Amino acid sequence: CVSQWGHHFRPEYRALTVLAERFSNVPRLALTATADARTVEDIRSQLSLQEAPVFRGGFDRPNIFVRAAPREQERAQLRSFINRVSDGRGAGIVYCGSRAKTESTAEWLRKDGLDALHFHAGMDGADKRAHHRRFARGDAVVMCATIAFGMGIDRPDVRWVAHTDLPRSPESWYQEIGRAGRDGLPAEALLLYGAGDIAIARHRIQESPASDEQKRIERSRLEAMVAIAEAATCRRRILLRCFGDDLEQDCGRCDVCSHPPKLWDGTVAAQKLLSAVVRTGQRFGLGHVIDVLRGRLTDKVAQHGHDQLPTFGVGKDVSDVTWRGVARQLVAQGALDVAVENHGELLPT
């Protein structure tokens, strides 16, 4: 919180600099679990600890298997993951991007037979405490929460952590998945994400009241998180590099290592998708653009005469899933944007 480079930076914490002035003879200790080298140096400067020794441990948590996947059918993907990793003991956490989503996710999981709770900052204090106690003591309990659920979690047998939305930084993600497997036994982490997550996060940063420098920092952290999500090489190595660590070899404990993705040259596909976005007037979402590319004569396609476009049907040999992947990559690379304030129209940048 005290460092402008930290992922939970709060300007008010700069006032802690007075500690060195007013209590110069009192020992001071700064602790953090998820700081890169730049953040560490800023913390030392802000707290006047430049001469203090630094004790640093490794960041790797090899007992946590990490995986990420495009969010296609969120409920089915999450339920399949829980079915596979839950053995009726321990606990799990589902991190959601909004308060409303924590409640709706907990509700459908309960209807599906799980002991699911929700937790967010807008809850009544008594309800928060009650849900926290149930999570701390129950077997096979699932907590669906925002990032407000974190401090004070001291349950060693959390077997899995899932994210249904893209975290805002590698530090946030690492901190949250690090609540799994604290007993040293195998645990798993799942990240589900979509192109809309990236666009929404960029929009929030742009519209925030933060300084230009702080916005630049937040954008760099977001892009690092996108790189992890879209990784085609060892996911753990990319994550650890964010903290200045590196592995001598690929980890063997992530989805990319266990099932390496097939790579292909998407240049022509990207050109076709961007062309379709422009030719349809930059007024439609991805679903409609894919319909045009695949040559589907839907009512909307016919209504707007998009079956007469040169791009109609030029991508019929490419699956919907692959087209969504191309769009996600274009958003990640900054070549395509999503109009988050309207109806999700695609816009070339």
Quick tags:
single chain, 349 residues, alpha/beta, Rossmann fold, Arc Repressor Mutant, subunit A, 3 domains, six-stranded parallel sheet, two-stranded antiparallel ribbon, 41% helix
What does this 3D model show about the protein?
The chain has 349 residues and is α/β, with parallel strands linked by helices. The protein folds into 3 domains: 1-57, no CATH class; 64-193 and 231-258, P-loop containing nucleotide triphosphate hydrolases (Rossmann fold); 267-348, Orthogonal Bundle (Arc Repressor Mutant, subunit A). Helix content is 41%, strand content 12%. The protein has 14 helices and 8 strands. Strands 1-6-5-2-4-3 form a 6-stranded parallel sheet, sandwiched between helices. Helix 7 packs parallel to helix 14 (320-332). The protein is globular.
How are the secondary structure elements laid out?
Layout: H1 18-22, H2 37-46, E1 64-70, H3 74-85, E2 91-95, H4 99-111, E3 115-119, H5 125-137, E4 141-145, E5 158-163, H6 170-177, E6 187-193, H7 195-207, H8 212-229, H9 235-241, H10 255-258, H11 267-279, H12 286-294, H13 299-303, H14 320-332, E7 336-338, E8 346-348
Helix pairs in contact: 7-8, 7-14, 8-9, 11-12
From N to C, what is the helix and strand string?
HHEHEHEHEEHEHHHHHHHHEE
Residue stretches low in confidence (pLDDT < 50, at least 5 long) are none
CATH class of the largest domain, named: Alpha Beta
| CATH homologous superfamily title of the largest domain | P-loop containing nucleotide triphosphate hydrolases
> Quick one: how many beta strands?
8
